[in-house]
Write a structure and sequence with these properties.
Blueprint lengths: L1 H10 L3 H5 L12 H13 L13 H13 L1
């Protein structure tokens, strides 16, 4: 519920305003709406109790999986 409120708020702001949001790095402000919509879609695909927010990004996860599968 909190995530959806934040997502709706993000979508109402332009790129400059999104760049000033706490927690959104300015270089990510261009794709923030797409990222929030992707998370919204993912959440709509099932029932989830909680969400974990990490500092890394999908590239970190892909690289970690590649390293682990080669060991």
């Amino acid at each position: 519920e909190d995530f959806l409120k934040l997502s709706n708020s993000i979508q109402l702001h332009d790129q400059q305003q999104r760049a000033e949001f706490p927690g959104i790095p300015p270089f990510r402000s261009k794709l923030a709406i797409e990222a929030f919509l992707l998370v919204e879609f993912t959440l709509s695909c099932g029932e989830f109790d909680k969400m974990v927010i990490v500092e890394g990004d999908i590239k970190d996860g892909i690289l970690l999986e590649m390293i682990q599968s080669s060991i």
